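Please predict the structure of the following assembly.
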Amino acid sequence: MTNNPYRLLGIGLTIAGAIFAPVAYFILNSIPITAIALSSIMIGFTSIALATARPQISPEASQLILETGMENIAALLEELGLSNKAIYLPSSMRTGNAQALIPLSGDIDIQRIKGKIPRRLIVSYGDNPSDMAIAVTAPGGTSLKKLEIKPGPTSSEIEQAITYVLTGLLDLANSVEVRTSDRQLNIEVKGPKLHYENVWYYRCMGSPIASIVASIASDGIGKPVRIKEESYSNGKSIISLEVLG
Amino acid sequence: LRIYNNYLLFLVLATCLIDVSLAFAEQTDIAVYFTASVIAYLIITALFIYFSPKARKTLSFVSIVFLAGFMVVAILKIFEVMRW
C-alpha cells in the first residue's frame, strides 16, 4: 500500500499544502502563495484518488502471467508444428471468449466456416474431415471483456476502442491511429511497450499488442481478421490486418 | 501509468499557469484563484476520456468535492453582492 508512488505523492502534496496554506495566508499575508498551497492540496487529493484506481497486481507480476500463458501456447504450436497465421474471429462466429483459430493443415477458407466455433481446443470448422483447427484464447481475447461498449465498424470507433484498452487500461502504448483501406486495416501504435520478436509464437499469433488490436478490430467490423504484417520502427509499431470473408 | 502521469502533469501546469497569471494580474481574492483552478481541473478531467472505469469513478468523487467547494464560494459571493 505505501509503495504506491501516487499515494506517496498525494499524501506529501496534501500535507505540505495544508501546512503552508495557513502560514502563507495569516503570517506571510500572500494570496498567490496561499493559492499555490491550495493547488497543491487539490493535486494531492487527485493523486490519492488515482492511487486507489491503480491495478493491484504489479507490472512485473502481470508480465510473468502473460509470459507463462504465451510459453504454454508456444509449446503447443511448436509441438504440433503449426506455423500458419492465426485468424481472429468476431463474437458472431464464436462462443465464449474471443478466439484465434489456427488451421491444422493448409489455410482456412472462411466461407467454409459453418455456424459458431465451439469453445474447445481442437475444433472442426467445416464439413470436410480436414477442416480442423485449434482455437486458442489470445491475449487480445480477454481484453474485449474490458470494453464497456462494443466497438462499431468505422475506423474512428475501432481507434477509440483500441486506444481505450492500450492507453487507458493496459498502459501498453501512448496513442493509436487506425486507417482503413480495401480489405485492410493499418494500425499505427505509438510508444508500444511490447515489441514484435521473430519467434514461433509471434509469427503465428502476433505480438500481444497486435493480438489485442486484431481481436478488437475483428469484433468491431464483425469479420475475421488475420495479422498480415507487423513491424517496429522509430518508436512505432505498424500492424497490418487483412479482413477476411 | 503513463496516462496518470500525463494527467497529473497537465493539472500541475494548468494550476501553475493560472496562479502565476492571476498573481501578475494582481488579483487579491483567494476565491478567484480557487474557482479558476477548479474549472481547469474539471476541464482537464473531462478531456482525459480514456481512464479506466475505476479511475473515472474515484476522480468523479474528487470532482464533486471540488464542485461543492466551488458552489460554496459562489453562494458566499452571491450573499456578498446581495448585502450591497
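The two ends of chain B are 50 Å apart (CA to CA). Chain B has a mean pLDDT of 90.
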